[in-house]
Amino acid sequence: MEGRKNWPISSLSLLLLSNLFFILVNSTSAVDSSSVAAYTPPDNYLIDCGSPQDTKLDDGRTFKSDSASRSYLETNEDVQTSVDSISVKGFSVSSSALPLFHSARILTAVSKYTFYITRPGWHWVRFYFHPLPHPVYNLTSAVFSITTDEVVLLHDFFVKDNSTLVFKEYLFNVSGDRFSLLFKPKERSFAFINAIEVVSAPDGLISDSASTVPQGGTLNGLFQHAFEVCYRLNVGGPTITPMNDTLSRTWLPDTPYNVFPQGAQNASIIPSAVKYQQSGATPYIAPSWVYATADEMAESETLQPNFNLTWQMNVDPGFSYLIRMHFCDVVSQALNDLYFNVYINSMMSVSGLDLSSINNALSTAYYTDFVLNASSIRNGSVRVQVGPASGMQSGISNAILNGLEVIKISNSVRSLDGLFGVDGSSGGGRTMKIVAGVGLAMGVTAMLLLAIVCIRWQQRPRDWEKLNSFSSWLLPLHTSQSFFSTSKSSSTRSSIFGSRTSKSGYSSYFSNQGLGRYFSFSELQNATQNFDEKAVIGVGGFGKVYLGVFEDGTKMAIKRGNPGSEQGINEPVLNPALPREQVNLAEWAMQCHRKGVLNKIIDPHIAGSINEESLKTYVEAAEKCLAEHGVDRPGMGDVLWNLEYALQLQETSSDQTQTDLPEDKSTSHMIAFEKPNGKVCGGDSGVSVSDDSQVTVTSPLFSQIENFQGR
């Protein structure tokens, strides 16, 4: 039998088969945006509050009149207001929604809207506010809060400008068959509302987990939170009205938030060319109009662009935020040609994002979520950036962004406005509990210490005021009155000199406790012969020192404070009237010395006559005396030696100047001045230093160190 002939498969045939397979795969994995059916919400409550008739918008939605929706509201008064037209400066809602701001319901007391839920799950809640004129109520002065059964939506909310339109949008996971909105005016105030939406949202809008910023982590449990949409931007394109959105959302242009618009240029394709993958983004996530436009780098053809596309939005810094970014490669001519980085608040979120590896196709919708923690928000703003990835071997330097959403996440007490929950509980979580616990412990400790002090105060001896005058703690202080009083009775007291009988008449409590001996002023007068000048044995910094002799022959040095002394309290260490850097003279001088500008603080009358070596020696001695640790400071003998040496240098320099000697470093009038261990000498003056640190000064210039007078 004749065998079958095997025909080889050409490379062209293989290429055709692979292309056919690629087309079939993409045709089954991608969904045309036009083929998605419109979403019909099971729950669709649309109320035009205060309106006498139904209001039909240009986007096809109809809002019920106030009378037709009266069954949803529980309130004690029926107060409404409406106008034929409004005048506003600017608004962040679609122009098709303007008729909803022509009427309002005024709530003078706590009121509640209740809605029956057909299918529990995610629901949109939207509020419209605009303060309209009313003959009795000034709506710009209204202050109120709005809550659900579990979540705080608005706390002490108000609209002060009657030319402003306010639109609020929330997303909840409703679990019960009823959903309530509680309007609570502040005391002596009222609330108002122009329109309300409570509409079902499809599943899959929010994932239970999202990547954290910076990259590397994941946050779970998002289903347990409520959300407020703060910004929804159509990057690179115009406003998208609810008519062109599958879920009646409004997408605003990104232009007001683009920090560097000169560095961005628009790119777009027709919306019908946008493809959705079955396992990725859907038209419910964002309509094709969002993915059909983008901002790309205006200088994308440069080799090393040095900027990022940047958008910045103001937010409440006390909350975490869900950042949703939408991408669709509408700029590349081929796959694997676009790589870029994503940053949020200057932190890397995605490094080298390659849409081709994710979608395996161009013009395909893709989105990604990030959670920005409240601690990462600086200056009350969220900053989103995209820029070219460095180090890529292929592709052009470019970056794109198609859409951006900034969504507030409820805090630990399920509040979207403020730190208090529906039940009044305060937020802060574990940190606040720790702080409260520490504060409580400190409070209890303080109370115990206060109780101990009170008990000891009650148990103090009767003559405590005599024995422990508060003024004695502040020595050296001078007072004309004696520190201690005396009594006429005599008693026996112990002292550091032994036990003896004193005529001063009281027994020292502190002596009995072994805390030392106290003397009355009269005892000191008797011991010094009423402070006779003949008993003076020295003069201290605060006054004279007397030799006192007590009745038992004990001798003691007694220093009496001098009220005219310039030291102590009368001589402040710091002069607060000077500039900050000059308050402390020592620190200021050392600071100038370190900067090499010590000559600026020298008296200009003598600055030119000071020998540089003499000044250097003097400053070095002063610097050593100001050492932080005592062991690093010189002894008094070393200090005096340096002072004498500096004096010799200065006098030698002066003699050379007066006699106009030729400048010859080989000759000098300076007297030999050595520093041996025991004796230090120099010319007719000198300083003797003994091993026990006793100092004897013979120089008349420094004689006050040996026998100084109190200042």
UniProtKB/TrEMBL annotation:
Keyword ATP-binding: yes
Entry GO terms, CC: membrane
Malectin-like domain location: 47-408
Superkingdom of source: Eukaryota
Membrane topology value: Single-pass type I membrane protein
Main location, first listed in the record: membrane
Signal peptide: 1-30
Residue stretches spanning the membrane: 434-457
Positions contributing to ATP binding: 559
Keywords: ATP-binding, Glycoprotein, Kinase, Membrane, Nucleotide-binding, Serine/threonine-protein kinase, Signal, Transferase, Transmembrane, Transmembrane helix
Coiled coil: none
Keyword Signal: yes
GO MF, one example: transmembrane receptor protein tyrosine kinase activity
Record localization: Membrane
Pfam families recorded: Malectin_like
Protein name: Malectin-like domain-containing protein
Taxonomic source organism: Populus deltoides
